[in-house]
Amino acid sequence: MPIYEYRCLECGEKFEKLVRFGTSTSEIQCPKCGGRKVEKLISAFSARTSSTTAASAAACAPSAST
């Protein structure tokens, strides 16, 4: 089940909800005010890696051999 981000159109609260596929937006309830007028937000994807940025960039850089 994916986690979606929502915003309540009644009180402005932003919240996350674990929902089943096929769940209608009208079934989602705001945890703050109980309102059912919510909109699904587009969220940014984030991932962490164990390597450092400098090492990753150096591994991808073209070699300087001539």
State the total count of DSSP E strands.
Answer: 3
What fraction strand?
Answer: 15-25%
Low-confidence stretches: none
H/E order of the elements?
Answer: EEEH
- The mean pLDDT is 81
| Strand arrangement in the largest pleated sheet | 2-1-3
- Main β-sheet: number of strands, strand sense, barrel status? 3 strands, antiparallel
List the helices and strands and how they pair.
Layout: E1 3-8, E2 14-18, E3 38-40, H1 53-60
Antiparallel strand pairs: 1-2, 1-3
Describe the protein.
With 66 residues, the chain is of the alpha+beta class. The chain has a domain at 3-44: Single Sheet (Rubrerythrin, domain 2). It has one helix spanning 53-60; strands at 3-8, 14-18, 38-40. It has a 3-stranded antiparallel β-sheet, with no helix packed on it. A hairpin with a 5-residue loop joins β1 and β2. The radius of gyration is 20 Å and the shape is elongated. The termini are far apart. 8% of the residues are buried.
Quick take:
With 66 residues, the chain is an alpha+beta fold. The protein has one helix and three strands, in the order E-E-E-H.
